[in-house]
Amino acid sequence: MEQPFRVCIFCIRTFIHRVLEPPDDVKKLFQDYSQNGIMSMDDLLNFLSKVQGQNNAKEDDAEAIFNTLKHLNIFPRKGLNLEAFYRYLLGDLNTPLSPCVHQDMTAPLAHYFMYTGHNSYLSGNQLSSESSVRPIKKALQNGVRVIELDLWPARNNDVVVRHGRTLTTSVKLLRCLRAIKEFAFEVSEYPVVITFEDHLTADLQDKVAEMVTKTFGDMLYRPETDELEKLSPESLKKKILISTKPPREYLETQDSNSPHKSEKSSEEQGGDEKLRSSTINLFSCSSMCFTKQDQIDEGEQVQGEDEEMTIPKYRDLIAIPSGKPKGGLEEWLRIDEKDVRRLSLSEQELEKATRTHGKDIVRITKNNLLRVYPKGTRLDSSNYDPFVGWKHGHGAQMVAFNMQGYGRPLWIMQGMFRANGGCGYVKKPDFLLREKDDFDPSVSSPVYKILKVKIYSGEGWHLDFRHTHFDPYSPPDFLVKVGIVGVDACETSRTQVVKNSWLPEWNKEFKFEVAAPELSVLGIEVSDDDKYGSPDFAGQTYLPISELRTGIRAVPLHDRRGVRYKSARLLMRFDLKDSPECSE
Fold it and tell me: What contacts 565, CB < 8 A, 6 or more positions away?
């Protein structure tokens, strides 16, 4: 097919839009696993098992592949010819990651990394953007499991969500709660945690308790006598948990009853000592009954307490008590590991702490939840390197990110949580959870795996972009950058530039040494080379290395914000094996 590009009023350049041919490796594999030019269902099963590493593939899997190709004129009745086999390899049933949840989901919450948002209600920068329910909906639809809301008093004894002491607008808390209820379990049935940053008086806290109780009903997890350390994502399916600091007056009451009363206020101590003494009480509440909430118009407030529903006190809704370490890092690191709570540190505070106390942080995060959040100077809603929380196994479960922007840190975060079926929970590596031997992040990790990556070709850009998007005078000049992001730094490699082609072929292989593959992702970025300026973005994806499916795979590409393109993708081959060092 010819594609014209106008160079000037009098001159038009015409390029031939050719058909993409199967790579030689694909032709060879088809020849090896077919008979007389036709691949039967049994032949396909053999290919899936021996080449694609799908040892548990069944006849239903092969039949599903056949069914996706039957509408094509290239599909023979008896099986797949080379062209149909090639279309399968480039299709949506041949992705590099399993679409299913496959990790053990019965461990305590502290044993998982959790997909976490920061200031989840903001649509733009941290200083003057709009507060809205739209970013909350989008985050939940992308699999985020931890939503942060900042609660502030408003006129008419109401509660709003906004970024305090800035020019950001506000949105009513009730609207945010309803949005969470509607979209919480649209893409994942595993629990959603709402973290409140609470700036309310006691009477408004009671009002929040009423809103939360009536909005969520049976979806709300109400702490009982069970300790949080025994609760798992599996046991909390389709439940919403509240995490915030216990009310100050409640902590002071608990402290006044303590024989070792401190002279410092709970605010000065950060609530740490009092939180330890009250944690058990925070996990108990009387049994309550719920009725389905009647529909309320958007502008209305929650009605008065129903006779059929007992509204619990604010403190009794707190499933995960939180606190910010004060009084010195040494004191914080002496907390009782069995008193489960959420601790918060900024990215700067964590980096400073891990230089000298990395091993202690690993120990603390075996049972407690550690939340890391962006430093206050990130007014543009940019993000930090997520490996600040993950790198060298510090084990922070909640690495909180601004989800409304884009950039490489966010791509890495999105890639990490494509693992485990994209459910928003990723099991920590075993070396972070050993009971007797604490992992030491200051010690360099050995090379555990060797990853071979071969980039064959790409397609689909001509369907997702205008033909003049990359260059007004000619087809694009595509190249691919590929590299490892993880525990130990690894340099990025790149393919050659393929000139003037919407269907580039590279046939380039790379080899990477991977330390701690459970904490590493494979970064893939495609760009249009420009000799006279910066390269034009043409797609990206980041993939968790420990979950890569071996064999030849179709790798979908995403835009700058992480939204998957409809058609643009790469054909690649992955081979992940133990390094010789580990096999000795």
Answer: 460, 464, 539, 556, 557, 558, 559
